[in-house]
Amino acid sequence: MANLKYGTPEFYAEGFADYLADVDADNPAVTENLVTGFLIAIEDWSSYHTKQADEYSRLHKRVREALAM
User: Fold this and answer.
1) How far is Cα 10 from Cα 32, in angstroms, rounded to an integer?
2) pTM of the predicted model over 0.85
3) Taking the alpha carbons of 44, 50, 56, 58 in that order, is the dihedral positive or negative?
4) 4 domain-assigned
């Protein structure tokens, strides 16, 4: 990425452009794989963060119980 400031629209546009360059009219499976890969990534990150939030809740409950003793 050409010295773009992290988090700016331009930063993300350059990253997305790399993936969009893979779209191939002669091989539509690539486009489907791009979309499917994006959905998998969203699901994976969502699952990860849900598990992390659950663990924070468990920790919070445990600390509250310990302090109540």
Assistant:
1) 25
2) no
3) negative
4) no
Domain that holds residue 18: 9-67
Contacts of 30 (CB under 8 A, 6+ apart): 22, 23, 24
* pLDDT surpassing 70 at residue 1: no
* 25-66 pLDDT, tens digit each: 999 999 999 999 999 999 999 999 999 999 999 999 999 999
